[in-house]
């Protein structure tokens, strides 16, 4: 017997909606309402979106407090810079890999439960970092922070997908993304300011207070539970996880979306690592490079909200294809540019990449069964931040061979591959709609 495609029911519903509206005359009011777009988020959706956005910002800020402090930690604990960087890499690895099991646990026990674990774990870890008496305690606390922060993404996104109506999910996920970008943009300045005025430990202590505030906010959210079917087996065993992964992999749209996510994450990690160096070489020094990187993240804040709004107004697969069609040539040209052209392309690349994030999350929610949303978002995050982390190594090899221009040419090639996968995604979903109708 042929396995059932998890997305078949979704496509059948869409096709039924098309048949219902195909012959229906449209009044002038209908046209005006469509141009206005969807109504504002309802009270519950707004509460979930903004609470998730605040916690999302805290998670990204907590992870990014460390980079400005590498030399300070090296001197205080009398260890090599390589040791500090090694612990930072382990924290990032834990941040990415924790997402898959966390997503499955969110499907088993509910999203809010896992969000409370994430915020509580971050609070305890940040306090431990602030009080760390030795480098080994610091290392364990940083890795614990990575694991706790990694729990957040699949849990937060699955709460949004289950607690917010599908026609409002694009905007809600866009608001959620704004919080993450804002936290990432403010973290380096936060860390440096506290270190200069009161010492580096106070920056982590203050972040712990904010983390506890996020935990308290999460307590006020409704406990949106997954479908009852998941509770038949309370233990999230390896066999059950493997079975769920096989079921998800049977969905062709989801396969193509995961390829897009992996390629996009690879490009993002590469740009995040090497764009400051490329800007410093081509746009007037380290200070200008830092300023421009902040502007890229600010552009991402606007892009997340813009992409979320469009995701609720336009066909999502076509919109995603259009975004990748613009992103690929921008990436190819980025390594060949300098001066004003480089600044414009860098801002455009950041805007386009962040604009795609609410689209990608909304598509994943549409293609997977509600009871598997946590796992799907965990896989997306692990693909983007886990597999994507290899961009630093591969990009470093390319920089050694031919400088940052060659590295960005390589990232541009990966962006072209992402465009091809987005094209196949649009073709596959269009074909399924036609067959379902």
Dominant shape: globular
Count every beta strand, where a strand is a DSSP E run of 2 or more residues.
0
Structural class: mainly alpha
Radius of gyration: 22 Å
Overall pLDDT level: 77
What is the helix fraction of residues, given as a range? Answer: over 70%
- Give the H and E element order: HHHHHHHHHHHHHHHHH
Low-confidence stretches: 1-39, 229-236
How much of the sequence lies in strands comes to under 5%
Task: Please report the number of helical segments.
Answer: 17
Tell me about the largest β-sheet.
none
Q: What is the CA-CA span between the terminal residues? A: 23 Å
How are the elements arranged and paired?
Layout: H1 8-22, H2 28-36, H3 43-63, H4 70-77, H5 81-97, H6 99-109, H7 111-131, H8 135-163, H9 169-197, H10 200-219, H11 238-249, H12 252-282, H13 286-311, H14 316-334, H15 339-367, H16 373-385, H17 390-436
What keywords describe this structure?
single chain; 437 residues; mainly alpha; globular; disordered N terminus
Short description:
The protein is mainly alpha-helical and 437 residues long. Helices cover 82% and strands 0% of the residues. Helix 6 packs antiparallel against helix 16, helix 12 (252-282) packs antiparallel against helix 15 (339-367) and helix 12 runs antiparallel to helix 17.
Task: Give a structural overview.
The chain has 437 residues and is mainly alpha-helical. It is built from 17 helices and no strands. The longest helix has 47 residues, at 390-436. It is globular and about 60 Å long. The chain starts with 7 loop residues before the first helix and ends with a helix.
């Amino acid at each position: 017997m042929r396995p059932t495609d998890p997305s078949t029911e979704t496509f059948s519903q869409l096709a039924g909606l098309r048949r219902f509206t195909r012959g229906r005359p449209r009044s002038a009011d209908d046209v005006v309402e469509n141009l206005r777009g969807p109504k504002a988020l309802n009270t519950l959706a707004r509460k979930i979106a903004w609470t998730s956005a605040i916690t999302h910002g805290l998670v990204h800020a907590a992870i990014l407090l460390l980079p400005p402090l590498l030399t300070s930690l090296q001197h205080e604990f009398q260890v090599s810079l390589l040791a500090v960087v090694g612990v930072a890499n382990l924290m990032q690895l834990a941040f990415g890999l924790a997402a898959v099991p966390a997503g499955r646990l969110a499907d088993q026990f509910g999203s809010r439960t896992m969000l409370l674990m994430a915020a509580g774990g971050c609070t305890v870890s940040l306090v431990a970092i602030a009080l760390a008496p030795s480098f080994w305690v610091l290392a364990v606390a940083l890795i614990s922070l990575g694991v706790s922060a990694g729990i957040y993404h699949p849990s937060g996104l699955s709460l949004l997908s289950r607690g917010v109506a599908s026609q409002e999910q694009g905007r809600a996920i866009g608001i959620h993304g704004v919080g993450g970008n804002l936290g990432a943009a403010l973290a380096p300045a936060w860390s440096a300011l506290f270190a200069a005025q009161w010492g580096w430990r106070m920056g982590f202590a203050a972040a712990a207070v904010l983390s506890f505030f996020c935990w308290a906010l999460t307590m006020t959210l409704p406990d949106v539970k997954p479908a009852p079917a998941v509770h038949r087996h309370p233990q999230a065993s390896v066999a059950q996880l493997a079975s769920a992964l096989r079921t998800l992999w049977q969905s062709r749209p989801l396969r193509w979306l995961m390829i897009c996510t992996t390629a996009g994450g690879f490009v993002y990690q590469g740009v995040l690592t090497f764009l400051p160096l490329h800007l410093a070489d081509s746009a007037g020094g380290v200070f200008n490079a830092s300023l421009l990187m902040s502007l890229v993240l600010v552009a991402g804040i606007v892009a997340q909200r813009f992409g979320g709004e469009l995701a609720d107004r336009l066909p999502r697969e076509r919109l995603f294809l259009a975004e990748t069609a613009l992103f690929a040539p921008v990436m190819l040209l980025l390594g060949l540019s300098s001066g004003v052209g480089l600044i414009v392309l860098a801002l455009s690349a950041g805007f386009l990449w962040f604009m795609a994030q609410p689209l990608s999350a909304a598509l994943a929610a549409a293609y997977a069964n509600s009871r598997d949303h946590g796992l799907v978002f965990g896989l997306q995050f692990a693909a983007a931040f886990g597999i994507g982390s290899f961009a630093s190594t591969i990009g470093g090899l390319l920089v050694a061979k031919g400088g940052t221009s060659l590295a960005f040419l390589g990232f541009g090639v990966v962006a072209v591959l992402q465009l091809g996968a987005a094209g196949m995604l649009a073709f596959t979903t269009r074909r399924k709609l036609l067959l379902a109708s």
